[in-house]
Design goal:
Strand content: 5-15%
Pfam families: APH
Strand order of the largest sheet: 1-2-4-3
Number of strands: 9
Shape: globular
Radius of gyration: 19 Å
Protein name: Aminoglycoside phosphotransferase domain-containing protein
Distance between the termini: 33 Å
Domain Aminoglycoside phosphotransferase: 7-229
Organism: Pacificimonas flava
CATH superfamily: Aminoglycoside phosphotransferase (APH), C-terminal lobe
Largest sheet: 4 strands, antiparallel
CATH topology: Aminoglycoside 3'-phosphotransferase, Chain: A, domain 2
Number of domains: 1
CATH architecture: Alpha-Beta Complex
Helix content: 40-55%
Length: 295
């Protein structure tokens, strides 16, 4: 949960944001303290992030959380992907997001030592998704085709990097000039850099701008070139396409999980139930990719 705060410093307003977990969320895969540490270290590596101002302690009585600087801008992807006032931002975002990822993936993994981060490359991600699918007693033939297809195409990553894990439209702060900050680092882990690239290009995160495969704002080839210019490893388009399919499969299973949570009574959010119905969208995307190679 996020809360806007405002303090006074030197007689001037100083806006901040409190990121806080609450009991109903259950156990998080990453504590807010670790998330704050990852975000700070990524920022030191040149990734645009909000500055962490304070990590909560038990003595604060506010639970698990941190306070970060407020960054002015738009976070709702449908707005900055469609509104005319963000046309200049969209034109700049291919280079900006590629540069941010290249910088992140180039940081020495030892910078994140001691944080207890997982290591999951492509095959491990696929197995984790299969375990989740089996736990849901999944019966989606298209997803099973995707599992079989990706088992042949995903290979072990020889040089794992720190990956954001949820790098996509919707987790950015955008201003008129483009990308201002990257948010939501709770899924960060060591893995294949193509995971971030494929997730950014997953059709779900284009928010209807499906002809712009990179986040709804850019083209793949231009993104790959910008990523490599900024210091990222050369991108194999075929391998990246496999991670795009992995992204659609991942989103489809996430939709199944949200629907299951609603049906079980674990969550009462009608939004979760509605998102659960989007399994069919992921199926359609995967069918197209199986036939055409990419969407």
């Amino acid at each position: 949960m996020s809360y806007a705060l405002k303090a006074t410093r030197g007689g001037e307003d100083y806006p901040m944001v409190l990121q806080q977990s609450f009991a109903e969320e259950g156990a998080r895969s990453m504590s807010r303290a670790v998330q704050a540490a990852v975000q700070t270290r990524a920022g030191r590596g040149g990734v645009p992030v909000p500055d962490i101002l304070l990590v909560l302690t038990p003595q604060d009585g506010l639970g698990d959380g941190f306070v970060m600087a407020f960054v002015e801008g738009e976070t709702l992807a449908p707005r900055y992907l469609r509104q005319q006032e963000y046309a200049g931002a969209r034109a700049a975002m291919t280079d900006q997001t590629a540069t941010a990822l290249a910088r992140l993936h180039s940081i020495d993994t030892q910078e994140f030592a001691g944080l207890g981060l997982q290591t999951l490359d492509g095959p491990a991600q696929l197995q984790a998704l299969m375990d989740s699918y089996d736990a849901l007693r999944g019966a989606v033939p298209v997803f099973e085709l995707a599992f079989a297809h990706l088992k042949r195409r995903l290979s072990t990553c020889s040089r794992p990097a720190l990956v954001h894990g949820d790098f996509r439209s919707g987790n950015f702060i955008i201003g008129g000039e483009g990308l201002r900050s990257v948010l939501d680092w709770e899924l960060a882990h060591f893995g294949d850099p193509l995971l971030d690239i494929g997730w950014l290009c997953t059709n779900t995160w284009r928010f209807g701008n499906w002809r712009k495969p990179v986040g709804g704002f850019g083209e793949r080839e231009a993104f790959y070139r910008a990523y490599e210019r900024a210091g990222g490893e050369p991108v194999d388009p075929d391998a990246a396409a496999a991670f795009e399919m992995l992204g659609s499969l991942r989103w489809g299973i996430m939709c199944m999980q949200m629907a299951a949570g609603y049906r079980s009574g674990e969550t009462v959010s009608v939004e979760r139930a509605a998102i659960g119905r989007r399994v069919s969208e992921a199926e359609a995307d995967i069918v197209y990719m199986l036939r055409e190679g990419r969407l």
